[in-house]
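We include the entry.

. . .
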Amino acid sequence: MDRSHRHIALGILLACCRCASALNPSLDINQYAHKAWTVRDGYFQGLIFAFAQTPDGYLWLGTEFGLMRFDGVRSVPWQPPAGQNLPGRSIKSLLAARDGRLWIGTREGLASWKDGKLTQYPGLAGGGFVDIIEDRKGTIWASGSAGIAGRLCAIQAGSARCYGEDGSLGRDANYPYEDSKGNLWVAASPKGLWLREPDPPKLYKMPESVGGLAEDDSGALLIATRDGLKRLVNEKFEAYLLPNVPVPFRPTRLLRDRDGGLWIGTFDRGLIHVHQGRTDVFTQSNRLSGDAITNLFEDREGNIWVATADGLDRFRDFAVPTISAKQGLSNATVLSVLAAQDGSILLGTQGGVNAWKAGQVTIYRKRDSLLPGDAVESLFQDDRGRIVVSTSGGLAYFGNGKFVPLSKVPGGTVNSIAADKAGNVWISRSYQGLFHLRSDGSIEQILWTKLGHKDHATAMSPDPVQGGLWLGFLYGGLVYFKNGEVRASFGSAEGLGEGLVGDLQLDQDGTLWAPTQGGLSRVKNGHVATLTTRNGLPCDTVHWMKEDDDHSVWIYTACGLVRIARRELDAWAADSRQTIHPTVFDVSDGVRSNSLGTGYTPSVAQSADGKIWFLPYDGVSVIDPRHLSVNKLPPPVHIEQITADRKTRDASPHLRLPALTRDLEIDYTALSLVAPEKNRFRIKLEGRDPDWKDVGTERKASYNDLPPRHYRFRVIASNNNGVWNETGDSLDFSVDPAFYQTTWFQAACVAAFLGVLWGLHRLRLHQLAREFNAHLDGRVDERLRVARDLHDTLLQSFHGLLMQFQSARNLLRGRAEDVAQVLDRALDDATRAITEARDTVQTMRSSTVITNELAQAVRVLAEELAAQQRAANEGAIPFSVEVDGASRELHPILRDEVYRITGEALRNAFRHSRARRIEVEILYEPRKLRIRVRDNGIGMDASVLDEGREGHWGLPGMRERAKAIGGTLEVWSEQGAGTEVELTIPDSVAYGSPRRRRFRFLDRRTGADS
């Protein structure tokens, strides 16, 4: 469902909802919440002629300068779509039809607006339409004039049929009205009143001009005329007189609200309200925006809207209305309130005792009822029904409208009065102390110092179970007084709230509640706990508490009236760390906030009908816990516009914003018109916000530097009573990317960056390879030079020396046997040295072979070693070289080291193993390179296997070489079981890139780097 359909469906649902409230008909206008918007303050331009409320919740105002849309906070001029115009600028009439269409009547013609489309009616041009209604059949009736003739047009299915153009309706046709019986009336000036439906039409002649039509309580037709109200009864007109409204007066508009109240707008006397047999007037002197009323309207939430020549006014219900001097009190300063046993409410005022009963006030003053003084302070009624009244002139019993002074009690200010179960009366006087009036008539005075205080008691409560008396004091503290002694005392050190104790309430189980300036304190079995803002109170200063019949606890605080469920209060009493969740009624609900109480008791009372009466300093406030004025309608929510970089756009679906949009503002609203300033909002920008954000009453969301992507902005809202519209409204929009923010550009940049990295990597590999090859070439040249030197110098010298030794041996043959033996040993040593040198030269030269065939090189070496054995007549040992896996490329340096280790293992096998067979396996595995050399010879001793032979560096050198190239060498051998040598090199070393292979080549004898 798209946004427009969702809003229409919600509007229809709300329009049909029975939970829509109405104004309390028992109240006067001045007891309603009133707000005025004036033209001079710049809220509107020009006169307001018409009202309408469309299903989406907006209030539309027809003014002399165009059409305005109002959400209770902001008024916005309405502009038709580009290329379209209204028939005229001055809007005379408006109607929101049941199908959601807004009908707009101007001086020049008629138009309608629905689903973003403005429809013109050319056939109705050339005349003004000042009133539009919709009858119960869905027919639209528009009245006005065309030239010098009045006309009434019926519009059905887009086609119109007009009446009166022949002059039958006179000069003007105004105020079409469908009564409760379905009759259609229209005022025809100057002829009179036409009954247009049902057919045939009937004319009721009357000389006066008509200003509006309605019905009285009996269903008779009421007509507003220049001389006042008239009523059509039995087809005759008669005057309809209003109490307290002198005639003649000129009514201009009539409105019957949904709860039966009659509202009358006048030409120059303001607003008149007729309700439950009473009439009250509200004028500019009462802060009405103006005394000349142009129109009246009731919205879907029961608010009454009044258009005047100077502005706009709204009247709505207070949850807590106040009775003041305008309702008949002798004085607005009320100091105490008492719910008497006869059902009346007694009010102690500066002008005597006021008794309120059944909506009527009876006043008892000094001059006519023997009251000791007109300024009444505290009130009290005991169990026997005796009422004690405290005044500036003394105390008196009150009954049957008469006062009997208590002359034995000295005069002075009385702050509180109480009586115990024995019938004794206790009186707290500010300076004199506590007075005890015993049932036998004697009086006892107890000084405050005896109770441990220099200040006086401001509240008292007798304990019906224990028989004692609880007292709360002006500067704080509690005292339990019994049988002339202080039995218990509590202060802030014991956990009691600090400051004035304004009231005391004692539960049936003996729990004492003490409202203080530091919170609501609870005293039970000597333990004190105090409920404060830390536990959820809106503020700490508490004046009184009262439990209603439905077990909700009401607490009057310095910041409003608080309601707490009793179960929550009990949960806190069981665990003082618990948090409460109160409902707060503040000034917008009619509750006046006070930092101090009146200083007299009682300051709160509960009448027999369950209403709670308390004192706000300007009268007496009343709340009915069972009939609270609660707005149960969830407010329609709308996203109105979006402003990007100071350019405003309509909140159209799938909005695309240009690249590099920086400053973004989204305006939204909630259309509860009861107290729009208390509507609360939660917003969430999907694509950025992980969760909802509570923005309070703010109606604009701002964002900076949103990255390019798709977003959905969502908003939900609650009305003044916390009823949430959980569906809310949403807006999909996207921020286009700049070219450098696009995916293809970023992918190209990444690819280019990776290409540069790859090029640098290849360049570095090339440099390393060149350096490595240069180093390798140097090593190869050096090894060839050393091999040549060994062959050309050392080996030649050894051969020459050997020949000399041989000649000497021949010369000594047969001469000296001992010398011959020495020479024989020298010859043997020289022969071995030549063999070793030849092996070294062979190894060094073979490593310079360019081929990478490791198996071929090992096979050639094995053949040479076998050939040497045959030349020495030792017999050749059979051998084999096998390769497993595809041959892999090895770096020359790594290949040389592998070849040396393998060669050393082969030499050891051929020379020392006495084996019958030698095998070599070269395994090119995926994750490693392995070379095994096995023989089935005599094996090695364990000590030789671990440390090698003394003076020989074969095995240690092989292990050092293996470690230097990142490999491991394992040797297994047992005596008589042969020997196996296995070299293992990981694939990352054996087959990796030259950069990853950095080896240390060690001299196998010294261990130094080569």
Observations:
- The radius of gyration is 55 Å.
- The longest helix spans residues 743-811.
- DSSP finds ten helices and 70 strands in the chain.
- The domain at 22-316 is CATH 2.130.10.10 (Methylamine Dehydrogenase; Chain H).
